[in-house]
Write a structure and sequence with these properties.
Layout: E1 3-6, E2 9-12, H1 23-30, H2 34-37, E3 43-49, E4 55-68, E5 76-89, E6 92-102, E7 108-118, E8 123-133, E9 136-145, E10 148-158, H3 168-181, E11 189-193, E12 199-214, E13 217-229, E14 236-242, E15 248-253, E16 259-261, H4 291-314, H5 316-332, H6 337-345
Antiparallel strand pairs: 1-2, 3-4, 3-16, 4-5, 5-6, 6-7, 7-8, 8-9, 9-10, 11-12, 12-13, 13-14, 14-15, 15-16
Length: about 375
């Protein structure tokens, strides 16, 4: 239900039929991760140029991490987007500021917009506040003349109906993501606010890559066209020229006498990518033909032989033990040498209780299998 109020009071307005974003738009927003947004957190500034080429103002954008707290108890990490446009057209100063809090899911939880036109004797401001509370999105638009509200419109929408909504502040962040990807979702229909703050559809289209002269440098830019399709007014159209890291190099609003451009190429951000793991091909090795390896083999062989001989000299009982085993082995000549050796050396094990070496043949041996 939409409610509309003015200086005459509050009255019920007819139920507004809210359009819906399509699946492509919703999927696009849901697959934007924090790792893609992280390199998009920076400040930038442009200047406003008139049709005659004169500088008539400036335009700045800032996106950074912030903590949003709708009350004193809950806090949520989000993105704070702040944009300011100040231009003077035909001697009339015009200022627009946008401040928005965007969640990591790119949902707008709060946005404040102020548009002011400073006539000499008749300054006019349009103030719009968007705020999410629980499952409702509340919108308040007020027209102010000389610090007095002369007209107020209020709206409320169910958040369940606003999947795929991109507000003006969220748009500045989404454009940077598209620039990093250098891809615009095809046939995606998003939701947006029109000039009267009614919900309408919006689309993005890729105009491809172009060359742009910035100072003495020529840079490649990715051009994105955004259109807001109002049901009650003509469509609004912008063209954004973006550098590979999301910096805005040029912004054109169709019908506006001011064009925003950069004066010099900024230092572009780059994402460090890990070097690929080296792949070493398998090389056949004949160590006997390799002089160095063969020499190492001989040195190691002599070292082991000397170590073994030293050990045998220090333990004469080893020679006596082996001599006894070989003598008994040759006398008995068993078919199963391994089992005979196990039975012979079993009494020397620290894990078995002491017993006579060769017990009666009637007693089963644990080393022999019985079927």
């Amino acid at each position: 239900m939409q409610k509309k109020s003015s200086e005459k009071g509050t009255e019920e307005a007819p139920i507004q039929k809210i359009p819906a974003a399509n699946e492509g738009a919703v999927n696009f927003l849901s697959h934007i991760g924090a790792n893609e947004i992280k390199p998009c957190l920076f400040e930038e500034s442009l200047v406003a140029i008139s049709e005659s080429g004169q500088t008539i103002g400036n335009f700045s954008i800032s996106v950074k991490m912030a903590c949003y707290s709708p009350d004193e108890w809950e806090e949520e990490d989000c993105y704070l987007v702040h944009a300011t446009s100040k231009v003077t057209i035909d001697g009339v100063p015009c200022t627009t500021t946008i401040t928005g809090y965007i969640t990591k899911r790119l949902e707008t939880v709060e946005q404040h917009t102020k548009e002011s036109v400073r006539f000499r004797e008749h300054p006019v401001e349009t103030r719009t506040h968007v705020m999410k509370r629980q499952d409702q999105l509340f919108v308040r638009k007020a027209i102010v003349e000389r610090d007095e509200e002369i007209h107020v419109d209020t709206f409320s929408y169910k958040c369940s109906q606003l999947q795929g909504l991109i507000s003006e502040s969220a748009n500045l962040l989404v454009l940077r993501v598209m620039a990093w990807r250098q891809v615009v979702p095809e046939n995606a229909i998003f939701l947006s606010f029109d000039t009267e703050q009614h919900i309408c559809t919006s689309t993005y289209n890729s105009l491809g890559f172009q060359k742009q002269q910035v100072g003495k440098e020529e840079v490649d830019v990715f051009v994105i066209e955004r259109t807001v399709h109002s049901e009650d007014d003509i469509p609004l159209n912008w063209q954004f020229y973006l550098l590979p890291d999301g910096h805005l190099s040029r912004r054109v609003q169709v019908g506006s006498p001011a064009t925003m451009v950069i004066l010099q190429v900024p230092v572009l951000f780059e994402i460090d990518k890990p070097d690929p793991r080296p792949v070493f091909g398998k090389i056949p090795l004949d160590w006997e033909e390799d002089v160095e390896l063969y020499s190492m083999f001989l040195d190691r062989k002599e070292e082991l032989q000397a170590s073994h001989a030293t050990y045998v000299r220090r333990h004469p009982e080893l020679t006596a033990l082996l001599a006894d085993f070989l003598q008994l082995l040759l006398l008995r000549k068993p078919d199963d040498v391994v089992t005979f050796a196990a039975e012979f050396f079993a009494p020397f094990s620290a894990q078995n209780p002491p017993c006579r070496s060769f017990q009666s043949s009637d007693k089963p041996s644990p080393f022999r299998s019985h079927v």
